[in-house]
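From the pipeline queue, job 12 of 40. The input is one protein chain; the requested action is below.

Action: predict structure.
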Amino acid sequence: MKRGLPTRRPAGGFTVLEVAIAACVMAMVISSSLIVMQSGFKALDNARKTTLASQITQSEMERIRMLSWTGMQNLMTSASTIDLTTIFPQNTATEQKVFAEMQRTFTATRTITPLSEYSNEVLLITVTVTWKGIDGITHNRSTNTRYCQNGLYSYYYTLAS
């Protein structure tokens, strides 16, 4: 052995500091991915329920559009809560299960307001669907339309003359 030259140890493993830094980086990556997944699940839940709420409002609007003026007058005096049984079928066990979930999740309401500036011959109809997301935040979706006593084209014709 020569004097004055330091002896080298063979390179073996990682130091404690290197392992600690790697563990911290790994923990940050895992926690970041969990946060991203959680926000993705919230967005997916919101998108699904927004689509269902839009379908509920569309179904109710289509049902209302088929009513006569007398039917509209009767609808104005009835309850403002929309019965979801008219929208969701319940013939099979699966359909009953889906309906039960829809009833727990969504609340649908309808408001009908006569517009006095048009001699109460035009009604403003608003359908609103409300639900709570998985994050506990209340969301809603609403749709408006107008309904004329003698039909829309007849109403435009009387305004023009």
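Job complete. The chain has one domain: 16-160.
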